[in-house]
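Chain A, query sequence.
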Amino acid sequence: MFIGRFRERNDIDKVKHLLKEGGGDVSLIDELPKLSAGQFQLVSPDVSDEPIPIQCRWLYTDHGSPLSEEQVEEITDDEVREWASGRSRVTTRDGAAAATAAIGGTGSGTAGKGGRGGGVVSNARVKSVGGMTAAAHGVVDDSAFEVRLMGGLAVLKDGRDPLYVMQALTNVASGVALAWAMVAVLLAWQDNNIEWWWMALSFVITSTVGLVIGLEMFLSHDATLQKKISRFARSIQYILAAWLWTVLVWERSSDSIEMGWGSILLEMTVVWVSLFIVVELINRFKLGRLEFKRGHSAFSTISKNLKSMSAMMTGMQFNEMKASSKQVLAGIRWVLDFCTLLLLASIVTIGWTSDGNLSSGLADMGGDAWILKPALWLGSLYLLIFISETWLRLKDKSISESE
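Chain A, predicted structure.
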């Protein structure tokens, strides 16, 4: 056990009683009032007969919130449980195995539903980061869903959460769409159809996304740096979404750039990205009602309210109020089913009011685009869900076959 500074006589007597019961050095009692802040004595007769002094420093980086008993239960793997069970039956003087199991894991075991193997401490660090980083390590829990529209490609390898896999697929598609759009903008600039700064803007945005992906892959071993990368990606992801929308509207309304077959991918990517942006905004609106005042734009009002809200709430409180990935995915499915029913009802109504001539009814409304566009958007979302679940099924099948 760790013992810090105690000055009250009653507290010192309680510690003395614990030392006697545990077989510790009772003479340590005289040193307790002399300890400074950050100084502790490690008492563990299984490790050392003498108390081990420990000097702790102030934390320089964010180490996340303390783990609850339920979280400790989740991240404790079977090998650590077996080790602890064996230690409770047979007492030895060597505690090195405990440190090895806790810090780096033992053998090549897995971490169960708390995440892939790596030991209690490493798994706890990953879970404290949460979001895409934890999902990339196979964590599936009821923590708050993180909308992150850059990087997170490691989820496709080790992730088991369907919604995070959907988001990773969206990020892959947005990266391809950005690269395709940059080539289209470059060709348009070479043909003198657009100004040079359009090309520069496309290059900066695409390079930033590539930089995030590269840093994430290179620093995958460091949970703290992964958290910083995640914060950076989240801070500029709205710029990415705005650029994709700009390119889509630009390509549809002007002949200055030509995406070719990439226009279909671009439109599907915009729908997917917009879906996750809507999820993020819904989470934000759930945290508090936003008051819109006359004379202020909607964007400035939302930004001001969100900043003040973040200042009043801690990160832990903020995450607890956000929906988990299971809740978000259930909500997405419900909305998709409802919109699909509306689309089918609209088709039936148009055909019925046009005496069974659907083409004539659509022509009277302005063309097939009124049906084809919503059908494309809904179909693309169903396609994203289908690819995500198929990907997870194939991975589970390959894992079971390898075992």
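The chain has three domains: 2-55, 69-129, 159-287+322-402. Residues 69-129 form one domain.
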